């Protein structure tokens, strides 16, 4: 689930292959209206699709000329980004 609080989007629950397709589209409108942070503190589970989601959100934010900050990234997500060689793209902001 995504909840907006000011300029931040708070993500809660699992970020897995089952949840990511819906979440990927949900943030687009928020980027168009100025959201510039995503807080992952409420994430309970991740798989490789969570890394793909973070990259997609960064792409969408860039399309809207927003410098996106990723906050409280789960350790498992950071480990997966290193494993896939994209750690420089998925960095806490």
Question: Short description, anyone?
Answer:
The protein is α/β, with parallel strands linked by helices.
Structural class: alpha/beta
Beginning-to-end CA distance, first to last residue: 21 Å
Instruction: Kindly report the average pLDDT value.
Output: 92
**Can you write the helix and strand succession as a string?**
EEHHEHEH
Walk me through this protein's architecture:
The protein is 40% helix and 27% strand. It has 93 residues and is of the alpha/beta class. The protein has one domain: Transcription Regulator spoIIAA. It has a 4-stranded mixed β-sheet. It starts with a strand and ends in a 10-residue tail after the last helix.
Give the helices and strands, then pairings.
Elements: E1 2-5, E2 8-15, H1 20-26, H2 28-32, E3 37-46, H3 48-63, E4 69-71, H4 75-83
Parallel strand pairs: 2-3, 3-4
Antiparallel strand pairs: 1-2
């Amino acid at each position: 689930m995504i909840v907006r609080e000011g300029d931040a989007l708070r993500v809660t629950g699992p970020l897995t292959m089952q949840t990511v397709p819906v979440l990927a589209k949900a943030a687009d409108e928020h980027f168009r209206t100025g959201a510039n942070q995503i807080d992952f503190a409420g994430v309970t589970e991740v798989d490789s699709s969570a890394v793909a989601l973070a990259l997609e959100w960064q792409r969408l934010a860039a399309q809207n000329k927003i410098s996106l900050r990723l906050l409280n990234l789960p350790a498992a997500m950071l480990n997966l980004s290193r494993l896939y060689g994209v750690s420089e793209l998925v960095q806490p902001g």
